[in-house]
TrEMBL record:
NCBIfam families: CpaE_hom_Actino
Name of the protein: Septum formation initiator
InterPro entries: CobQ/CobB/MinD/ParA_Nub-bd_dom, P-loop_NTPase, ParA/MinD_ATPase, Rv3660c, Rv3660c_N
Boundaries of every CobQ/CobB/MinD/ParA nucleotide binding domain copy: 113-153
Rv3660c-like CheY-like N-terminal domain residues: 8-107
Native organism taxonomy: Bacteria, Bacillati, Actinomycetota, Actinomycetes, Streptosporangiales
Top-rank taxon, per record: Bacteria
Organism: Actinocorallia libanotica
């Protein structure tokens, strides 16, 4: 659905068009009430300029009055019309951009899967990247998020370290909503996977507000978002995969990660030096076992060439995971 602007003020209309373009939202413009009548109740939101308050537009939900100044007369008339807010420009531009996105964006349908390891070096980054690559091969629109500022970077894993595009430090001051189209167009990508990673010359943590905005936009822009997470720092996700190497110290490290209100799904990785079976690990952690794979000797040299394979035991596991975790994948 589109937004409707009712105003005869060309500068005000231009400002709205600029904000709508930044939010990838389409707007229709009416210069007078008669022109807006047929679209008044069909629009997702109506932006009524202060210059058009003299008429008698019908009341409706989703009515916002736009003004250059916060005068008593404007607020009184907005109250009479049942407007939800008087947006004073340019101060309220961030709020107005967010309101346009909320009103005009389609419902979010994308899924978020977080991946973390029981310890450093468990292989969570390789699992997350392979899962993203297999999903892209199956025709899904995929985003890979790198949430560990101290790692080598998932852009390096995929050979994108020199590619132009947005990195997390570029979003450090992000406030409010982010346009899904803007996010998708700004990211580097390869093999069907878009990547949001850290800048190697500007290591920094991911601000909570920026992460929330990116995840919201990602659910609109991508079928699947895979987040590679440092140990103990998990974002809101539909599912969390916990990768545990089949060794005693990894199982002990995993206990604190397993004891969460929403238990993660367990993935184990061989070899098992003490021949510890995956079922015993699952029983010890009281977690559902969703898969096991053995270390693939082809992966380390492939990482050096930024050419992770989409065949082998890990790829087969990721294929099964996608079939299980995503409703109706192609």
């Amino acid at each position: 659905m589109n937004a409707l602007v009712l105003s005869g003020d060309p500068e005000l209309v231009d400002d709205v068009r600029r904000l709508a373009a930044a939010a990838s939202v389409e707007v229709e413009v009416a210069g007078h009430a008669a022109e807006a009548r047929s679209r008044w109740h069909r629009a997702a939101v109506v932006l009524l300029g202060a210059d058009a308050l003299a008429g008698s537009p019908p009341r409706r939900d989703g009515l916002v009055v736009l003004s250059r100044e916060a005068s008593v007369a404007v607020y009184r008339r907005a109250l009479d019309l049942g407007a939800e807010r008087v947006a004073v420009l340019p101060e309220d531009e961030p709020w107005l951009t967010d309101r346009l996105l909320r009103a005009c964006s389609p419902p979010a349908s994308g899924r978020v899967i977080a991946v973390t390891g029981a310890r450093g070096g468990a292989g969570a980054s390789v699992l997350a990247t392979t899962l993203a690559l297999i999903a892209a091969r199956r025709g899904l629109r995929v985003l890979l998020l790198d949430l560990d500022p101290l790692s080598a970077g998932l852009d390096v894993v995929l050979g994108l370290e020199r590619a132009q595009g947005t990195r997390w430090p570029d979003l450090a001051r992000l406030r409010g909503r982010l346009s899904p189209d803007t996010l998708h167009r700004s990211l580097p990508s390869t093999r069907g996977v878009a990547v949001l990673s850290h800048a190697h010359d500007r290591p920094s943590r991911v601000p909570a507000e920026a992460l929330a905005s990116v995840l919201t936009a990602a659910r609109h822009a991508y079928t699947l978002t895979v987040a590679d997470c440092p140990r103990g720092a998990l974002p809101p996700a539909d599912e969390t995969l916990l990768l545990v190497p089949a060794e005693v110290r990894s199982v002990l490290s995993a206990r604190s990660l397993a004891a969460t209100p929403v238990p993660p799904l367990l993935i184990t990785r061989g070899p098992a030096p003490a021949r510890m079976p995956s079922t015993a690990i699952a029983e010890s952690l009281s977690l559902p076992l969703y898969g096991h794979y053995d270390f693939d000797r082809h992966i380390p040299p492939a990482l050096e060439q930024a050419a992770l394979p989409t065949r082998g035991p890990l790829a087969r596991l990721c294929t099964r995971l996608l079939t299980t975790l995503l409703p109706g994948p192609p």
